[in-house]
């Protein structure tokens, strides 16, 4: 039995200007114990899919099973299997951290949960904040509490919707160490993130969504291996030559260009010379997940039939 099964899931939202199809026939399974990444640009439909999974939004067509339970017909059973860390920081400001976790335990009917609550607080670096009021916490601390809340009933399936947006390096490391431990202990993890480095490091398999459709569904290692081209990376001291527009990944002064072979590298450098520009810190590297992502998202480069 898969941990999660998305079966021909479609979603059409009604809007003031008519209707909008956010998901279009999404089908894939996530197996028991997988660390699975769901990637896609803004508006691709990731949060919609997760909201349907969590029973917060109704699919227009298709169905979703969690540990074999239909999220609509067997809502309580399905929800009990899931720990969802939402994207937005929603919390009740009147409770302390420990109270919030106790209330959440009660919501799931879990009694005598203090030992696990203490372990969650310690593992997420919240032990000294247990008695602090939620409204006294920083944004990063609140995010830690959201993670603890999602895990309070020890769900077999953990869903993280952009858990590291706006989170500092230390918390990221704490969070990933803890989630990786839970994954090693057998929990299935579904992660959406815009930090492709994190997805590359953590996820064994990845689905990419584009405009509501699955456009890639593969093991992370296969995605990276299939990307045959190398990348030429350098710092540029002037404006990007027109020849590179639409091809280059540009971050400030850093320019990264696909380069299949030595000849193409030479061509790129010739363009720079002809433009009278200087380059520094030139290197050639293997493609990473961000290169694959940008390639798959460009028109006509889908890796599974749309
Ligand atoms: N309640 C709603 N009513 C109408 N349209 C909606 C609603 N919720 C989402 N949408 C639209 O559906 C599309 C998918 O949104 P969704 O939030 O699922 O994308 P996402 O992949 O999670 O994006 P992001 O990376 O920005 O979080 C978007 O175009 C969005 O505007």
Task: Tell me what you see in this structure.
The chain has 306 residues and is an alpha/beta fold. The chain has two domains: 4-224, Rossmann fold; 228-286. 33% of the residues lie in helices and 29% in strands. The protein contains ten helices and 14 strands. It has helices spanning 46-53, 75-80, 97-107, 114-123, 139-151, 169-184, 196-202, 220-226, 262-274, 289-297, and strands at 4-15, 18-30, 35-39, 61-66, 69-70, 82-85, 157-161, 188-192, 205-210, 213-219, 230-236, 249-251, 254-259, 279-285. Strands 6-7-8-3-9-10 form a six-stranded mixed β-sheet, with helices on both faces. α3 runs parallel beside α5. The longest helix has 16 residues, at 169-184. The two termini are 26 Å apart. Adenosine-5'-triphosphate binds next to β1, β2 and α1.
Order of strands across the biggest sheet? 6-7-8-3-9-10
**Tally of helical runs:** 10
Distance between the termini: 26 Å
- Residues in helices, as a percent range: 25-40%
**Which hetero ligands occur in this complex?**
adenosine-5'-triphosphate
By CATH, the superfamily of the largest domain comes out as P-loop containing nucleotide triphosphate hydrolases
Radius of gyration in whole Å, from Cα? 22 Å
Report the CATH C-level class of the largest domain. Alpha Beta
Shape: globular
- Give the percentage of residues in beta strands: 25-35%
Secondary structure class reads: alpha/beta
Mean pLDDT comes to: 91
**Sheet with the most strands, sense and barrel status:** 6 strands, mixed
CATH architecture of the largest domain: 3-Layer(aba) Sandwich
Poorly predicted runs are: none
The total number of structural domains is 2
Pfam family, one: ABC_tran
GO molecular function, one term: ATP hydrolysis activity
Domain ABC transporter: 4-236
InterPro entries: AAA+_ATPase (IPR003593), ABC_transporter-like_ATP-bd (IPR003439), ABC_transporter-like_CS (IPR017871), ABC_transporter_ATP-binding (IPR050763), P-loop_NTPase (IPR027417)
């Amino acid at each position: 039995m898969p941990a999660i099964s998305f079966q021909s899931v479609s979603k059409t939202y009604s809007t003031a200007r008519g209707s909008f199809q956010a998901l279009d026939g999404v089908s894939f399974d996530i197996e028991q114990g997988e660390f699975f990444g769901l990637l896609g640009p803004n508006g691709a439909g990731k949060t919609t899919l997760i909201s349907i999974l969590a029973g917060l939004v109704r699919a227009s067509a298709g169905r979703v099973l969690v540990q074999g339970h239909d999220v609509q017909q067997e809502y309580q059973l399905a929800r009990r299997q899931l720990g969802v860390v939402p994207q937005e920081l929603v919390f009740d400001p009147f409770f302390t951290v420990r109270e919030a976790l106790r209330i959440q335990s009660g919501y799931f009917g879990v009694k005598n949960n203090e030992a696990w609550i203490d372990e969650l607080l310690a593992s997420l670096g919240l032990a000294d904040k247990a008695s602090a009021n939620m409204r006294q916490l920083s944004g990063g601390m609140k995010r830690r509490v959201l993670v603890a809340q999602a895990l309070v009933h020890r769900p077999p399936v953990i869903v993280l919707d952009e858990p590291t947006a706006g989170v500092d390096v230390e918390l990221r490391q704490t969070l990933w160490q803890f989630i990786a431990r839970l994954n090693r202990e057998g929990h299935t993890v579904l992660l959406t993130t815009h930090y492709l480095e994190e997805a590359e490091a953590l996820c064994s398999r990845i689905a990419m969504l584009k405009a509501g459709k699955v456009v890639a569904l593969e093991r992370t290692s296969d995605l990276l291996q299939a990307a045959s081209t190398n990348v030429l990376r350098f710092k540029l001291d002037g404006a990007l030559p027109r020849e590179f527009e639409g091809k280059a990944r540009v971050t400030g002064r850093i320019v990264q260009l696909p380069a299949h072979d030595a000849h193409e590298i030479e061509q790129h450098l010739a363009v720079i010379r002809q433009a009278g520009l200087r380059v520094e810190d030139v290197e050639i590297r293997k493609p990473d997940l961000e290169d694959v992502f940008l390639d798959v998202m460009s028109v006509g480069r889908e890796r599974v039939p749309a």
